[in-house]
Amino acid sequence: MPELPEVETIRRTLQDKIMCRPIRSVKVFYQRVLCNSTELEFSQVLQDRSFVALERRGKYLIGYLNSTDRVVVHLRMTGQLLVVPKGDPLEKHVSLQICMDGDLELRLVDQRKFATVYLLREPGYGPIKGLASLGREPLEESFTPTYLAEQLSGRTAAIKSVLLDQRRVAGLGNIYADESLHRAGILSSRPAGSLDQTEIECLHHSIQEVIEEGIAHRGTTMRDYVDGEGRKGNFQELLRVYGKEGQPCKSCGESIQRIKLAGRSSFYCPHCQQ
């Protein structure tokens, strides 16, 4: 699933392409991608409108139309938002096509069909409970060591499970949680409430550092992720533990191990992470 750095990279590449271009037509190839509107309503609301702002909140993209309406997209497992020249052959797994002035099309391509699109016509986030309940983001000024300590205090759940809880840290996912914990020297299965102040401050720094580097390197492409222009990221070249089972740790040479936490693979170094 695309995480904060990937979704932010997509936002930046799309923003330069689709802003203020009148929408001429909309076609829905997979009806279930629309979570709270029909194809007719969605098309009528977007027809002859244009996007005037594109924001990201956690792993959500929020497109603001030149009206009071918004379009919210979550790419889930394999979703891709691509800008292509009008008339390009349709990819096999296109769920949604938005044709704009300037001979450009915005397409949602999704092999596994888990991506979601919401049409918001009222203030607030309405039916999108996950968006309304998001915690603070790693690069927000309000994401401080004190805030992180509050989220971990008294928690017996594994530290990685708490970091993946979007109500506590928005946008952090499997890849960047593993990388942050390795840099901080903290075992992913440790109870979250067992971290002392020094460890929390180190983890806070590592989370921000990893997210910043992930954005600077345009995200991590392990399989499906590409930006809005179809380009892969390259942060995968800098990964220290994620997906590295059996390989030597770049810090100490110990073999990277993998365990299951809450049904997800977690990669760690048994020497560096205590």
Report the strand count: 10
Tally of domains? 2
- Major sheet size, sense and barrel closure: 4 strands, antiparallel
Assigned CATH superfamily of the largest domain? MutM-like, N-terminal
Task: Give the strand line-up of the largest sheet.
Answer: 1-6-7-5
CATH 2nd-level architecture of the largest domain: Alpha-Beta Barrel
Spell out the helices and strands N to C.
HEHEEEEEEEHHHHHEE
Uncertain regions spanning at least 5 consecutive residues: none
- Beta fraction: 15-25%
- Quaternary structure state of the chains depicted: single chain
| N- to C-terminal distance | 28 Å
Which class of secondary structure composition applies to the elements?
A: alpha+beta
| CATH class term of the largest domain | Alpha Beta
Briefly note the CATH topology name of the largest domain.
N-terminal domain of MutM-like DNA repair proteins
Give the overall average pLDDT.
Answer: 97
Taking all Cα atoms into account, the compactness measure Rg is 20 Å
Number of helical segments? 7
Helical percentage: 25-40%
Structural account:
- This protein is an alpha+beta fold and 274 residues long.
- The protein folds into two domains: 4-132, Alpha-Beta Barrel (N-terminal domain of MutM-like DNA repair proteins); 145-268, Helicase, Ruva Protein, domain 3.
- The chain has seven helices and ten strands.
- The chain has a four-stranded antiparallel β-sheet with strand order 1-6-7-5, with helices on one face.
- Strand 3 and strand 4 form a beta hairpin.
- It is elongated and about 55 Å long.
- The mean pLDDT is 97.
